[in-house]
Design goal:
The relative contact order is 0.11. With 429 residues, this protein is an alpha+beta fold. It has 2 domains: 3-68 and 145-317, BirA Bifunctional Protein, domain 2, CATH 3.30.930; 337-428, Anticodon-binding domain (Rossmann fold, 3-Layer(aba) Sandwich). Helices cover 31% and strands 29% of the residues. The strands form 7 sheets. It has a 7-stranded mixed sheet. A hairpin with a 4-residue loop joins strand 23 and strand 24 (410-415). The longest helix has 21 residues, at 205-225.
Length: 429
């Protein structure tokens, strides 16, 4: 990881209030952030795009399950037993870092190069929440993924919605991981939001191959539709010894961030591992009756995304810094504000607001009448606003405004009545 590049990215996020540190009046909590309106707008736009492509267009339904559920769910899914990492401590610099497994041999500390390293120890990745009973030593668990809420309820959901194989059940929601190291800013967090789809199908080799290829292409096209460059995306077939305990096959979609290459999202073939385990542990039948009246346990393919990572990738790729100025070159549909209305001076605010009121019906529009026009242009460039419209004294006479395009800083004088046509012709040509 290139710390200097990550530090610059964090500085940008904080300078323009995409995020702020949480609870600073109590000295905060490491890598805990409050997402501000600009960040949330991008995040929600990505969610909408995902729902359209993975749910609406893909014979799927969207549900919401609880964050806290019966702890037996995670015994049944084997998360209590298998969802863990291993770590070691350096006895000299006191740094803690993750290792692959309990048999990993560490030659030296990667931070201070000391040879005094502890043996690998187990680290449970799930957050335990004690029940509110003094005599009760049982725990709830904050979900480590949204998937289990789908698996334990899949049969009832299918019956309630008259779903026929193949079908998808999707969910967007918070998940929680008790991470060993919180690092790379928004890339690794204790709590994060996932978008997951569990696609259930009747197994045959052809069905598996066709569906896995279909979702591989769907994931890649979704990333490209967000404006991410294909040259920055690397697809890795995860080695068998590194697969998650539930996975039969996984593709990691990695992304070349400015500060290093890291996993962005994943595509896993979970076979029918989860459903078989839940059926065996719960003693409840989870058979699906197919069209031939046969009882089967469907197999599952799962595309899974962390939304914060997607926002980070989109901003990291599109952020430039030249001549002491930031410019966020987001695609039009992802820009937090697509148009800014900027009266030259404050006394022109009222007539300029009529343009704002008209354009807000179709676009995401902001209005700013403070500071010099130059500083306002620079600010709008920095937060990704695609067009900036300046209403000046001549506008009162000729009903024209100056429209400035972020990508090339081109300025053009146009009639107020032609603004919508100008924007649509530029963006959708």
């Amino acid at each position: 990881m290139e710390d200097s590049k990550l530090a610059k990215l964090i500085k940008y996020f904080q300078k323009y209030n995409f995020v702020i540190n949480d609870a600073l009046i109590y000295n905060g909590l490491k890598n805990s952030w409050v997402y501000q309106p600009l960040f949330l707008t991008i995040k929600n736009l990505i969610k909408q795009k995902w729902i359209q492509e993975f749910v609406v267009n893909n014979r799927s339904i969207l549900i919401e399950t609880p964050i806290i559920t019966n702890s037996m769910v995670y015994y049944g899914s084997k998360h209590i037993e298998k969802f863990q990492d291993f770590f070691v401590d350096c006895k000299v610099c006191k740094k803690r870092f993750r290792v692959e497994n309990e048999d990993t041999k560490i030659k030296a500390c990667p931070f201070c190069h000391s040879l005094k390293i502890t043996k690998p120890r187990n680290f449970q990745l799930m957050f335990a929440v004690k029940k509110n009973k003094l005599e009760d030593n049982e725990f709830f668990y904050l979900r480590p993924e949204t998937a289990q809420g789908i698996f334990v309820n899949y049969l009832k959901i299918a019956q309630a919605n008259n779903l026929k194989l193949p079908f998808g059940i999707a969910q967007i929601g918070k998940s929680f991981r008790n991470e060993i190291n919180l690092k790379n800013f928004l890339f690794r967090l204790r709590e994060f939001e996932q978008m997951e789809l569990e696609y259930f199908f009747e197994y045959s080799l052809d069905n598996f191959k066709n569906n896995f290829l279909k979702f591989k292409n769907l994931v890649l096209n979704f990333l490209l539709d967000l404006g991410l460059k294909e040259s920055n995306i690397i697809i890795n077939d995860v080695a068998a010894e590194k697969l998650a305990h539930y996975a039969q096959k996984t593709l990691d979609f990695e992304f070349k961030f400015s500060f290093g290459t890291f996993e962005l999202c994943g595509l896993s073939y979970r076979k029918n591992y989860d459903l078989i385990n839940h059926q065996n542990f719960s003693k409840q039948k989870l058979f699906y009756v197919n069209n031939d009246n046969q009882k089967i346990i469907p197999h599952v393919i799962e595309p899974s995304f962390g939304i914060e990572r997607l926002v980070l990738a989109v901003i990291d790729q599109n952020l430039s810094f030249k001549n002491q100025r930031y410019c966020l070159n987001l695609p039009f549909f992802l820009a937090p504000f697509q148009v800014a209305i900027l009266p030259l001076v404050k006394k022109l605010s009222n007539p300029a607001l009529t343009i704002f009121d008209d354009l807000k019906k179709k676009y995401r529009v902001t209005f700013e009448d403070k500071k010099t026009i130059g500083k306002r242009y620079y600010y709008q460039d920095a937060i990704g606003t695609f067009f900036a419209i300046c209403y000046d004294f001549d506008s009162l006479k000729d009903n024209q405004v100056t429209i400035r395009t972020r990508n090339n800083i081109h300025q053009e004088r146009i009639l107020i009545s032609k603004i919508r046509n100008y924007i649509d012709n530029y963006v959708f040509k």
